[in-house]
Amino acid sequence: MSGTNLFDRDRSGTELQPREHGTEFNIGEWLRVLRRRWLLVAAACALVVAAGAGWAMHLLGPSAPGPRAEATLLQTRTIGDVTVLTDDEGYTLYWFGPDSATKSACLDSCARSWLPVTGPATWDSGVTGTIGAIVRPGGALQATYNGHPLYTTTADTGPGQTKGNGVWSHGGEWHEVTVPGRAG
Predict the structure, then answer these.
(1) Overall domain count for the chain
(2) Rounded distance, CA 118 to CA 65, Å?
(3) 48 Rama class: left (phi>0) / alpha (psi -120 to 50) / beta
(4) Is 71 a residue whose pLDDT tops 60?
(5) What is the pLDDT of residue 111?
């Protein structure tokens, strides 16, 4: 063997003979090695892109919920001495200070802690005020009450709790939705 050069032998292992100008070069073997290296590089790039896309999807979190087939039923409930608006399971509903009547300011990680109430909404006899809906980014409907987009919070672990009232979170203050009168 004439050295440690990768190209000193052909595929069968036979030592290559020097060419006329004193070089040991087999273009076929060189192209096969180059092709293998490019395939490995392409596979590594594909893995990096797939991992990056997976990480980006992880950071985005779950997608916004789509519209439900049936409407969310809004009800009233007395908690302490206050009549509050609740969803059909009895969870207290909240509004967010930075929201407007047409747009939610609670997006991404905020919407994972403060869950938007899916629209459209209906109400029982104890609910007074204006019920509506806005369109969230992504097209899902979010129920509104008197011009405020509605939310529940993951801090309330059961019906009848108001752990989110007066909380400063995600750039604004959260308020329980109060309703005039007594719960029905």
Answers:
(1) 2
(2) 8
(3) alpha
(4) yes
(5) 94
- Asked if 94 and 168 sit in the same domain, the reply is yes
In this structure, how many other beta carbons lie within 10 angstroms of the beta carbon of residue 121?
24
Which value, in Å, is the radius of gyration of the alpha carbons in the chain?
32
Other Cβ atoms within 10 Å of 100 Cβ, number: 11
Residue 67 located in a structural domain: no
Give dist(CA 108, CA 96) in Å, integer.
15
Q: Is the dihedral of CA 78, 132, 149, 121 positive or negative?
A: positive
pTM exceeds 0.70: no
The residues pairing with 61 across neighbouring beta strands, listed in sequence order, are none
Half-sphere exposure of 168 (CA within 13 A, CB side): 1
Same domain, 115 and 155: yes
Range of the domain at 169: 72-176
H/E element, 123: strand 121-123
The two structure tokens encoding residue 85: 């608006």
| Residues 105-122: tens digit of each pLDDT | 999 999 999 999 998 888
E-assigned strand segments in the chain: 72-79, 82-86, 94-96, 114-116, 121-123, 131-135, 141-145, 148-149, 151-153, 168-169, 172-176
Within 8 A by CB and 6+ apart from 33, the residues are 6
